[in-house]
Amino acid sequence: MNPVQVIPAILILCAHGVAAAAETEPAPLKVMLITGGCCHDYKAQTEILKNGLEQRIRATVDQVHVDDATTRPVLPIFGNPDYGKGYDLIIHDECAADIKDIDTVKAVLKPHLDGIPAVNLHCAMHSYRTGNYKKRTEELGTNESLWFEFLGLQSSGHGPKKPILISFTDPHHPVTKGFKDWTTNNEELYNNLRVFDTAKALATGTQGKSEAVVVWVNHYGKARTRVFCTTIGHNNETVADARYLDLVANGALWACGKLDSAGQPAVGYGRSAK
């Protein structure tokens, strides 16, 4: 082979190598991020979360956002039980405290009953509360327990906007491995009326004399759908905190089955994949 022939041959081999590497790379996780509603700067937070997650894990985050600051935001997912079709994960970060229609709530839950994993952030815990949400839910499988069974925890309110000490009570869980306790800036500590048997607490928050579970995972319904939740995330400063984004990214990977027992992302889904 003369020198003129060598260069094209090398180029062909390199092209084959690039193609082979591309074929082995996993497809990015397809993530839906739902934001909008009362009491939060969702317009900023949807961008913080999208950028933060896409920098940390191999994922494409599609935003479903409405500039509706009421407790009844008109989200485009409402009335469509198939809104999650084609997605690997749905992140609920909406604040829809007065969306109480049973059929609407059941349609929001349908993708998760069918097995699509979820991440629930902050005010998602105070959304879709049917029935008397201020009373501890005792009976399961009722219209009053719909959203709480999905979350794995029932909360009815929160304390003042003051710093919260986050203590990781299960540092061996894949989601929390390597995390150190930290104190947030001003945040809201959500109370716990009930932690369901399907849920596992990972961290508690302390604010003055009050203490509550603030990070947990849940297995939902007959499909035992993986659900990660944290009540932290009221202020933009907290949402933009690298520790918070790392935690949510781990929760997302765990929910999708892409985090091993040592807390390491599946091949191709961690920072090194970006």
Task: Provide keyphrases for this structure.
9-stranded mixed sheet, 274 residues, globular, alpha/beta, single chain
Element layout with pairings:
Elements: H1 3-24, E1 29-37, H2 42-56, E2 59-65, E3 89-95, H3 102-113, E4 118-121, H4 146-151, E5 153-154, E6 158-168, E7 182-190, E8 194-195, E9 199-207, E10 210-220, E11 225-230, H5 236-239, H6 242-255
Parallel strand pairs: 1-2, 1-3, 3-4, 4-11
Antiparallel strand pairs: 5-8, 6-7, 6-9, 9-10, 10-11
What does this structure look like?
The structure is a single chain. The protein has 274 residues and is of the alpha/beta class. It has a single domain (29-64, 73-221, 228-273), classed as Class I glutamine amidotransferase (GATase) domain (Rossmann fold, 3-Layer(aba) Sandwich), CATH 3.40.50.880. It has six helices and eleven strands. The strands form two sheets. It has a nine-stranded mixed sheet with strand order 2-1-3-4-11-10-9-6-7. Strands 5-8 form a two-stranded antiparallel sheet. α2 (42-56) packs across α6. The longest helix is centred in the N-terminal third of the chain and has 22 residues, at 3-24. The protein is globular and about 45 Å long. The two termini are 39 Å apart. Residues 9-22 have low confidence and may be disordered.
